[in-house]
Structures are given as structure tokens and as C-alpha cells.
Amino acid sequence: xxxxxIRITGEPVxxxxxxxxxxxxxxxxxxxxxxxxxxxxxxxxxxxxxxxGVGLRVFVYDWTDEHDVHWRGVAxxxxxxxxPLELDELDEDDESEGCLSVPGERxxxxxxxxxxxxxxxxxxxxxxxxxxxxxxxxxxxxxDHLDGVLYVDRLAHPHGRAAQKAVKRNSWGSPGQSWLPxxxxxxx
Length: 188
Prior knowledge:
Blueprint: E1 6-7, H1 26-41, E2 46-48, E3 58-64, E4 70-82, E5 96-99, E6 102-108, E7 114-120, E8 126-132, H2 133-146, H3 159-169, E9 178-179
Antiparallel strand pairs: 1-9, 2-3, 3-4, 4-7, 5-6, 7-8
């Protein structure tokens, strides 16, 4: 398999809604295997197809929770239902997240505590995961990518402004920029 270049914010595929997967074929199987390799090399806990330049509704995830339960899989044509957001104060340490398409930056973002993922696997079998905590956050983050939304697009003031400055400081925000995990050293 192969490690693929990760697209950086500004790349058009990151800012448009991905199209549904119509069939699981050899090309999709190769893409998913390459996405797992890329995610592991980055390292990351999730990766959506648009992040590697493919506008399909598919993402992969790999995370071990606080109870040592290992969550690893692929979601094809997912649907995501989320619980209402809590209105308490944002915890900047516990609620900070990063993104491989905005490398080296981390900002706090309120996400729903619970998310219900419905998708199909590579065998075409439907599945459902009732996720809480960080797994719910991972699913929301990757699902956003499929709708053309980066987490920095959701940031409230002053974090949204800081994200905009980081994009400008790094000369991102225009098409054609990417980085290759395992070759390019970027902070995560």
C-alpha cells in the first residue's frame, strides 16, 4: 500500500461536499488501504477521503479509548446524528482538536458529547456505532470533511481569528498545497 499526500486547507476538494460511493471496487479498496497507511504515518486518529484529494463520502478511523477498547474501521456513505451541544464553558485543554489538513495547529471546539454513526463497511454491510466522548468527536470531525467543512471553519472567537492568522502565516489557503506523512516533518 502507499502513503498519500494530505491536502492542506485551500485545496478545493476540502471545501465542497463529497459525492456518495456508488460501488465498492478495487479502486476503493486500494484507496481505503492507502488511507489507513497515511493516517498511521501522519499519525492521526481519522482521515477522510477529501483529505487525500478524493471527493468520496468515506472515512477511516483508528483510536483506543480510555477503557482500552480499540475502534478501527471504515465508514462508507455515513450518516451522523449528534446530541445537542452542552452550553457550559468550553474547556480549552479537553476540547482542543487538530486536523491533518491544518497541520501543527490545535484549537478548542465544542462538539456534541454523543454521536450515532450509521454507515456501510467495505462488504456493503450496514453498521451503527453509538459513540461518546472522543470517538464521537472523531466521527463529527471526519463527517464534517465529507460536507466540505474543516474544524477551523467552526471555531468561535477568538480561536477562529487565531486559525485564520495561522493559515495566513503558513501561506495556506490556496490550491495545490499538501504534505506527505513520513517525509515532510510537520507538528501534529
